[in-house]
Input
Amino acid sequence: MRASPLQHGPAPRLACGLLFLVAGALQAASAAETPRALLELMGEAIGQTSYEGTFVHVQGDDSSVMHVSHQLQDGRIVEHVSCEDAGRELIRDAAGVTGIFADRRTVLVEPRLERAGRLHGPLSESLADGPGVDEGLYLLALGPSERIAGRDARGLVIRPRDGFRYGYRLWLDRETNVPLKTQLVDGQGQVLEQILFTQISYGQKPAAPGGQAAASPVPAAAGAGEAPQVWVGEPARQAWAAARVPPGFRLTARQARVPSNAPRSLQQVVYSDGLATVSLFVEPAIVAIGPIEGWSQLGAANAYTITMGDHMVTAMGEVPVRTVRMLATSARRLGDDTDPR
Amino acid sequence: MNNSLEEQLSALLDGELPAAELELLLTRLDREPDRRSTLARYAMIGECLRTGAAVPAALQVAEQVHVRLEAEAARPGARPGRHRFRGGRLVAAVAASLALVAVLRVANGPQAPGQQLADAVAPGVASPDTLAVIEPVANVGAVATRRLEPRAAARLTTYLMAHSEYAGTISRSNFDSRLVSARAERASWQRTADAADAR
Output
């Protein structure tokens, strides 16, 4: 029996193939439009795209115009942020972060640390940010699109599910996935801080999907699913940690350092819920720096400082004050169950 | 700011600055980089707040400046690199200033944000995108009452810088902005956290 051309001819095969292609393309497009996929694309874009632009940073009545140069050089991002009004600039590169504060005639240097053979940096973190967001802690959703700095931007909403963390509204460039507008919002949706690009120009574009990325993906040192490590430092008996942390936060990094502008050792313990991070700083109490105990606000970031015996403990992060207060007030030396206060 | 410079900026805002004077103004501001962005920003904010309708006009001026500088750069014998850079930075500063104006108007004005923005962005404006949907930003600093002493603020700056290395992609820009805008030095502080419980 001869086969029917309708079943085995070239035209149906072509139609079938096209159907699969279209279905595949639609599925891919649909997947790319999910909030999580957008977060991942944003992380890749920030790690692989060169751009230069001007943005406005607004918090309360305080606002500043800044210039940013974000360049991919030798597989790594070198970023330079400057504010003419304040006479300050910040440079992030493979060596670390350097703050040039002309207004204070001060240069602060924060060297980047090699951690277990991996270089920690903006790129590695950016690649892990998307998958690191726990949807049990944050609700992810698509937001409204906007035109920003002359470009189409699609909205993305990250809403906290409790009062221990803030959320974000992001608008990503539809072509490049670079965030053109970022709002830090509290649980009630109130905008606490905002960054808005008014002009942006691109250099090197992200590598095509499936192509070779400009830099190899490296898991984040502070990302989810990685055990905390001690890189430099203090004997275990000197190590500090928070006895109580909000749901979802866990210890992700620990290091001892000597700040460039202080002769004393400073211990930093980092907690993360996959998106928000809080650092716990512990150092010998210094009377000379004046009163600092209590709650400090640095824009929408919060810090809480408390004296524990002969140590000063400060928790700092882009989180509500209740979170930093919980970490600071529950800080203990490891293996020491007594309250050192 | 002396009168001459003020008059030139005012004329720039009104779109009435002759091309020759525009070049002189840019040269002058170029010689005083510390004043350049401040002068432009405050002059424009003041103008916009006074008139309530100058936002689109200022945007148009920005476009005019851009067009003139581009034309100048294209002129035979011109120094395109220098002009292009300066013009680009000025246009960017103007656009950023106008975004600030929109923020201030939205945050402080009696009208609803949507209405204010609708008022601010007139039809036919060259670059209304800059003003798209800017929401009021809460003044969270109003809760705390005191400023930290300089040494304590310097300590927090050190912490801020150390912490920023661990901040994720989304929040790192905020931390960088706080560092560069000297936010730690202007940190609000209160000894007890009782008021903080309300947040």
Residues 37-202 of chain A form a domain with the outer membrane lipoprotein receptor (LolB), chain A fold (CATH 2.50.20.10). The longest strand of chain A covers residues 62-73. Chain A has a mean pLDDT of 77. The CA atoms of residues 79 and 265 of chain A lie 28 Å apart.
